[in-house]
Amino acid sequence: MTDSRKMKIDRDHIYVMQILFAVGITIASQSLDLENKHKWALNFARYVMYLLTVQASKPVCIELYEILYNKRKLDAQGFFSKANRTQAMMYAGSVAVIYLNDKKLYAEDFPFVFVAYLAVKYPEVATSTKVAVTYGMGMACSFIEGYLVHVVLPDGGTIKGLQDKIRAFEANNGVIFPVKRLFIIVTKSMHCPPDLKEFNDKSDREDVNRLEACLPLEEVIKDVAGVKNRNYKNSAYKIMRPNKKPVYIAAECATPLHTLYRVMKNRHLYEAIADVKVEDIVSDFVGTLRTVLAKSPEFKKTCELVCFDDTDENSNLSDVLLDKIRELEPNFEEFINRAK
């Protein structure tokens, strides 16, 4: 039996034991009035709603904290996509039961339930000194220290940083990059194609923007972890626009997510993590990556995360990238027109 399956069986057994424990306390206290089934159902719905409300308060507060203190934009779609659908249906059902019985959704006892929960949780918060490292956090750290450090930052010697490599590309090809950053594409499906043109509009229309690959930026060759002359390089793309000059950018997918995508496709080989919630891993990866990049003065000016819903057939990566460029450099058209 694999470790992951054993853990699942253990969780199931413990959950059943908790149910039996609750039933035992209820019977022993003789507080359950089975004759008044209507009142019993109403109280059950009310306390299910209370518990789900208290449980939801944590992710809501985390999202507000990120927006207020880390200046992160609200991603409503991403936030709600992480919600447990079963629990959402339970909440909606409980609200419906209470509402149809003409009762207050949150009665006078709710504040006591909430305050009691916070009081019980306080010792955990007060004594917690170590943060558990998740898969996603580890992936982000590995991506930064194992890859971005080598392709983005200069070494103070002969190896150029990303922005210097972009300037060399501009000089050699007579073009201009309006934003000299590495655009890191985070796809919803985690799929990362060999060429970003796969994310172009699938229609045959001639009035849409399209990505085309160019020559790569100057490669970085260095000795790393016992490997001699390891090669690193970034791809340059141009966004072809009808009746306008193309927009040049440095862009690529977040390769750790591509690795995770392949792992999930081969779950039978990786049974230890077969039952993990992929959404949580991606959320931790993106959150950690965004936080570290924002904290680092060097990365903050040279890397930009771009979330792209590749599951939407009507979505075009070129348009998403142009919106991001416009956000970072509102006058980018003027820069482009300076090119020869």
TrEMBL record:
GO cellular-component term (any): endoplasmic reticulum membrane
Entry keyword Membrane: yes
UniProt key word NAD: no
Species of origin: Arctia plantaginis (Wood tiger moth)
A GO term, aspect molecular function: 2',3'-cyclic GMP-AMP binding
Protein name: STING ligand-binding domain-containing protein
InterPro entries referenced in this protein's UniProt entry, alphabetically: STING, STING_C_sf, STING_LBD
Assigned keywords, A-Z: Membrane, Transmembrane, Transmembrane helix
